[in-house]
Amino acid sequence: MSTTVGTTTEVRPFQVEIHEEQIDDLRRRIETTRWPSKELVDDRSQGVQLAPLQALADYWAKEYDFGRVAERLNAVPQFTTEIDGVDIHFIHVRSQHEDALPLIMTHGWPGSVIELLDTIGPLTDPTAHGGDASDAFHLVLPSLPGYGFSSEPTERGWNVGRVAPAWAELMHRLGYSRYVAQGGDVGAAVTDTMGRQGPEGLVGIHTNLLVTVLAGPPPAESEEERAAAKQLATFRETGFGYFLEMATRPQTIGYALLDSPVALAGWMLDHDTDSYYKIAGAFVDGRPTGNLTRDHILDNVTLYWLTGTGASAARSYWEDALERAQLLASGQAPPPVSIPVGFTTFPGEIWRTPRSWAEKSYPSLTHFNEAAKGGHFAAWEEPELFTEEIRAAFSSLRNGES
Amino acid sequence: MSSTVETATEIRSFQVGFGQQQIEDLRRRIATTRWPSKELVDDRSQGVQLDTLKELARYWATVYDFGRIEERLNALPQFTTEIDGVNVHFIHVRSQHEDALPLIITHGWPGSVIELLATIGPFTDPTAHGASAEDAFHVVLPSLPGYGFSAEPTEIGWYTGRVAQAWAELMRRLGYNRYVAQGGDQGAAVTDDMAQQAPDGLVGVHLNLLRRALGSVAGLPAESEQERAALDAVATFRQSGFGYFLEQSTRPQTIGYALLDSPVALAGWMLDHDTDSYYKISRAFVDRQPVGGLTRDQILDNITLYWLTATGASAARSYWEGGQAAAHAAGQAPQPVSIPVGFTTFPGEIFRAPRSWVETVYPTLTYFNEVDKGGHFAAWEEPELFSNEVRAAFRSLR
């Protein structure tokens, strides 16, 4: 992309290019899908149901505009830069408000920067979206190593503990000396880790998944706590298959995710119960919830397909599982987060984090709210509501105070 | 297949017949595989290795003889019969020795009747395989519902306890009123259920997987070195080898899309079983050093059977049924087994069941042995040794 002499810290502009034969091959594969028989139940208890996946495949092959991914991404400023041996792809949108607060937001799995695109407007241009100029952010949206247009790690070790310092280096390279970080899902793990590592310049974090509970059982005394603990137990009993498979055998499931578009789409849809039914509803009944439209869902699935990153993304679970096991074996607790923490509970999330759990995980909690709607993919599903939460969580960190 | 008036208990002869276009479609899919990048480790710890699966795919598409399954299965007497609403496929080979002991052997996952074919000779014709006429069995090898050429259940409820009842009905229909049963893997679960149910005519069982210990090691002794080693092996399996099991137990439909649509996804999923068999199979492809009966052709016979019968999802559902049954039975002790039980520990199995564990689970244990080779697919890998074990286990019931 560049004819200048490359240095390892160079930041290069990036444009997505998709070749027609990639699209033709994808469409041919969707059209020649060999389908299993229908599940024997009337709900998601055996996995992604045949009817929504067939509706998805039908729409994907016949109606979906395959130019959307390139069009949407190339409409925003994209860059790559090599950090710690991996080429990191990121979107970087500066607000017109010069004293905007720099914010790095990390997507999760099965997400990508696609799930965050519709927050760019509200976060960087608040006056056009019901906010004040003082709510503005300069926004950095990186693709995790092995996801989307970031390159795949070619060596072991890229757990969230390594991604976090890479993000700090990225913010440093972009000249941001005072910034905040946000994330849900895997992005919450990265953001939580950034909070614990406390790199220079990071003044606050906000997450919308309480990743700390994956390390050990939280208290279950109040009614809210018991309800959340029950949700967590249900997830571990019946919703944990994809997690365990990726955490232990990413290569094996990787063959499916690279070779079969419907296997990829099925695997990506089979996440939490709330988002599954919302997405299934979008395809079967044509009734999307919030921003989880057919086109948006397929933008994300198509991105995974065209970048061929099913296996490399799954490997990130393997890396994190190894890191968690090593930490557990060491008997050491991770360092606490000492900077201000904001947390938002979205009601459709895998478990509804009670304030007490967030406070226990983060003694420096400065913002907690339970939003009225939204689920696991909060930024994607409800970008405006999500933006309001981010603005509120970080409002006390404006004007150079910290 | 039949022009006679059908009754629900009719037994019809069966022949395998695949269409040429099925083979061509399969070969085309293998040839156009879109591969992931190579794993980042030098062992199986991230799953099936790329070199192994690429070599399997190359051999499958360019060397493997797709006529093998028809040839091997159609060389044997095959039948189907409807039991409890499902059309059950089975191989039935009677020994020339009329007083042979009837034996029903159940395959497992990711297996099929393919894994048992090489035992038919030693069982039914012992004098041609170094044994005596008194060792003869009449052999019945059914395909589990949803596997191979058995039909897929069209309703929930086909857990192993229901399969066990169907097998008893099958043996009754075949006119056997005194018989024994054997199984490993899923087949061990079915056989264990048969032993608990103790249908009329079942006089003994032999197992080569202590299935109950995979579910819970509660109550099993953990003192001797052997016991602690077995406990560690079970723990390792549950920590790092349990992904396929949990996925199939909870989301068979989701993984089913991959298993039906992508031959390499199917092959990868089926190879990613226990550590011992994985490395044996991997070596057969990469180093061309097969162990026992686990040859390239035999491995591909089994995978090709899953592909051509398109049973990846329906077979996975049998784990879901197992999960449901386990959840319903939580806290309840299984029925005690009162008929004679034989057990053989093969050294490469997921865990080496010590005699003390087997005795704890089966107080009526009449035969126990630990042999010096073989693994999870014991019948497939070491058919002669396996046959010897089954003969020895049932000798007292002759």
Question: Any overview of this molecule?
Answer:
- The complex is a heterodimer of chains A (402) and B (398).
- Helix content of chain A is 44%, strand content 13%.
- Chain A is built from 16 helices and 9 strands.
- In chain A, strand 4, helix 4 and strand 5 form a beta-alpha-beta unit.
- Residues 1-6 of chain A have low confidence and may be disordered.
- With 402 residues, chain A is of the alpha/beta class.
- Chain A has a 9-stranded mixed β-sheet with strand order 1-2-3-5-4-6-7-8-9, with helices on both faces.
- Chain A has helices spanning 20-31, 50-62, 68-74, 120-124, 160-173, 185-197, 223-238, 241-248, 250-259, 261-269, 273-284, 294-307, 310-330, 355-361, 378-381, 383-394; strands spanning 11-14, 78-83, 86-93, 101-106, 137-142, 179-183, 202-207, 341-345, 365-370.
- With 398 residues, chain B is an alpha/beta fold.
- Chain B has helices at residues 20-31, 50-62, 68-74, 120-124, 160-173, 185-197, 211-215, 225-240, 243-250, 252-261, 263-271, 275-286, 296-309, 312-328, 355-361, 378-381, 383-394, and strands at residues 11-14, 78-83, 86-93, 101-106, 137-142, 179-183, 202-207, 341-345, 365-370.
- Chain B has a 9-stranded mixed β-sheet, sandwiched between helices.
- In chain B, helix 6 (185-197) links the parallel strand 6 and strand 7 (202-207).
- In chain B, helix 2 (50-62) packs across helix 12 (275-286) and helix 10 crosses helix 11 (263-271).
- The interface between A and B is large, with 52 and 54 residues.
